Amino acid sequence: MIIYNNEITVHRGESFTLERTIVNQDGSPYIVSKFEENPYLAITVAAARYDQTGRYNKTWWLSLKDFPRFKYTVPKVVSSFAGAPGDNAYDYVYTDGTNYRYWDGTEYVDYAFSLIKAFDTDITNEWIEQSYMYDIKHVYGNDTREYLIELCNEYDPEYLLKYPSASSEDIYDHLASIDEAYIEGIDYTSPIYDTKIQTILLRPTKLTVQSYLRRL
Question: Is the CA virtual torsion 34, 36, 40, 46 positive or negative?
Fold first, then answer.
C-alpha cells in the first residue's frame, strides 16, 4: 500500500490499515460532542464507474460511543496542566498552546482524535483493478435496531416476546413479510438511520486498485 497526500494505491487482495489523526484547520485536534446521539465515523469506498453488476459502494461504521467526548468542542487554553481544573471531567480538551489534554476526573490524559480501520483481504478481493473514491464523515443519528423494535412493537408486538434477541435483519425481514411499506427507506445493515452529517473529515479522495501482487 502506498499513500501520498491521502491518495491510496493498493493491490487487489492486499491487506492494509487506514490510520488518520484528524485535526481542525487551526491544528487543534477534532473534538466530538458528548450530546450527539449515536456518533459514528463512516468510511465509504465507491467505484468511480459502473460495470455490469452496478457500482460498488460500501460503508464501514466506526462507533464513537466509547471514544472520549466532551461538553465543549473548542479547546480551552490554560497556562499549565498543574493541579485539577475547575471544570468537570470531560468538559473540555485543554491546551497550553502545544499539548492537548483532558481531565478524566483523576488526571490529565493526552488527547488526539485518531482512527484506525483495517481492510483485510476479504474486502480488497472484492475490488477490481480500477479507480475508487473514499471519504470519511463524522455522522450521527437514531439507532436502527431501536427503530425497528419500535415498528415491530407497533405492528406485531408478539414477535419480540417470542424472539427477544432477534437481530436487526430478523426484525426487518419479519416486518417486510407483513408489509414492505413498514421498512421502506430503512437499511438494516447501517447502525443508524436518518443519518445526519456533522463533519466531512475527508472529502472524496482517490483510491487506486492495481492487479494482484505476484507471488515468487
Answer: negative
Q: Characterize 44-82 residue by residue with b for buried, 16 or more Cβ atoms within 10 angstroms of its Cβ, and e for exposed.
A: ebebeeeeeeeebeebbeeebeeeebbeebebeebeeee
Query: Tens digit of pLDDT for each residue in 74-109?
Result: 999 999 999 999 999 999 999 999 999 999 999 999
Report the C-alpha gap between 173 and 190 in whole angstroms. Answer: 15
Q: What is the pTM of this model?
A: 0.88
Alpha-carbon span 86 to 94, nearest angstrom? 12
3-class secondary-structure state, position 133: strand
Question: CB-based contacts of 17: which residues, under 8 Å, 6+ apart?
Answer: 116, 117, 118, 119
Place of cell 461538553: 71
Residue among 134, 34, 154 nearest 92 (CA): 34
Query: Model confidence over 155-167: pLDDT tens digits?
Result: 999 999 999 999 9
Helices 144-155 & 168-178 angle (0-180, nearest 10): 40
Contact assessment for residue 104 and residue 163, using Cβ atoms and an 8 Å cutoff: no
Q: How far is CA 163 from the centre of its chain?
A: 29
User: In Å, how far from its chain's centre is CA 98?
Assistant: 28
Alpha-carbon torsion angle 183, 186, 190, 192, nearest 10: -110
From residue 165, how far is each of 83, 101, 145, 170, 192 by CA, in Å? 47, 40, 11, 9, 19
- Residues 6 or more apart whose CB falls under 8 angstroms from that of 216 comprise none
